[in-house]
Design brief:
This protein has helices at residues 118-128, 153-162, and strands at residues 2-5, 12-13, 22-29, 38-45, 50-51, 59-66, 69-70, 76-77, 82-85, 94-96, 100-107, 132-135, 138-141, 150-152, 177-179, 187-188, 195-203, 208-215, 220-223, 227-233, 236-238, 241-243, 247-251, 257-261, 265-271. The chain is mainly beta and 290 residues long. It has a domain at 181-271: Sandwich (Jelly Rolls).
Length: 290
């Protein structure tokens, strides 16, 4: 189990392989090189941020906390929206309408291709700068360097760190799925008085999912493992620590925890996929960035 307080984490500059200004607070991560590695951040985008239409070889959940993100033909995510962006499905181009704050969980999923850690992405970015430039989310090789002239920035980093070409998984869903939790009803949770839930969806045969949990003042919610939790509002006690707005937790398989609400609380639960039996196709290796 790991508990992190958002307001105790420093802002850092990130996504330098994309275009524009992006800062983030890194909250949680998984095990590098494993098929289920993950990263959970809260990021802030400025109005100059831009990302080309692209796709991933991993899954992604987004919770729009402030502002609006524009994904062009895929639609917009206003504050309060939740999105599931499946591996292999193209989306974007992406831009921010002014300042935008988003919680993002990226994780290795059903294809088994895993997810690069922050350190691996940084190392790959710095190494590739010797052979080309990152412009508007695309890596462009110098004229005297062999290889594809232009590649999606993350794809170029992944291929460099893994030493092989990326084969995108065939998408299980054609497009991202954007959800409006306001249109769901709260349903009582069995054997947990004062606790209600909005189950937003379960995806793929590996069963990743998203749900909102609401606790009345004094209620106790028992959370289960293989999940990332983010407190959206309220305060109380979890395990042996206090929780407040944007407290984040990760529970692994077999772990559980009790949230005790001091006042009314809302929490988002992001359930990580069950990757039993999957082995990493090729664990990424970090090399020191020079």
């Amino acid at each position: 189990m790991r508990i992190v307080q958002y307001d105790e984490v420093e802002w850092k500059r990130g996504l330098q392989h994309r275009g524009g200004t992006f800062h983030y607070r890194h909250l949680l991560n998984g095990t590098p090189g494993s098929p289920g590695n993950f990263q959970f951040n809260i990021g802030q985008l400025e109005g100059d941020f831009a990302s080309p239409r692209h796709r991933h070889n991993f899954d992604q959940f987004r919770i729009q906390l402030e502002g609006t993100m524009n994904f062009d033909r895929n639609g917009k995510m206003p504050a309060g929206a939740v999105g599931y962006f499946p591996e292999g499905a193209p989306y974007g181009p992406q831009s921010s309408e002014g300042t935008s704050v988003t919680a993002v969980l990226q994780f290795g999923s059903a294809s088994g291709q895993g997810y690069l850690s922050r350190e691996e992405v940084y190392a790959g970015t710095e190494q590739l700068k010797k052979f080309g430039t990152f412009e508007g989310g695309i890596f462009r090789r110098n004229d005297d360097v062999e290889g594809r002239r232009a590649t999606d920035g993350y794809q170029a980093i992944w291929e460099h760190m893994n030493g092989q070409r990326m084969d995108y998984p065939k998408p299980r869903y054609r497009d991202p799925i954007m959800l409006d939790p306001a249109n769901y009803e709260w349903l009582p949770v069995k054997d947990m008085p004062g606790v209600s839930e909005k189950s937003l969806g379960i995806f793929t045969e590996r069963q990743c999912g998203a749900a909102l949990i609401k606790l009345a003042r004094g209620a106790i919610y028992r959370g289960g493992g293989r999940s990332v939790y983010l407190v959206l509002s309220g305060s109380g006690i979890v395990h042996d620590a206090g929780y407040r707005k944007y407290t984040a937790l990760h529970l692994d398989d077999g772990e559980d925890v009790e949230f005790v609400a001091r006042d009314e609380t809302q929490i988002v639960r992001l359930q990580l996929p069950d990757l039993t039996g999957l082995q990493a196709l090729r664990p990424a290796q970090v090399e020191a960035a020079e």
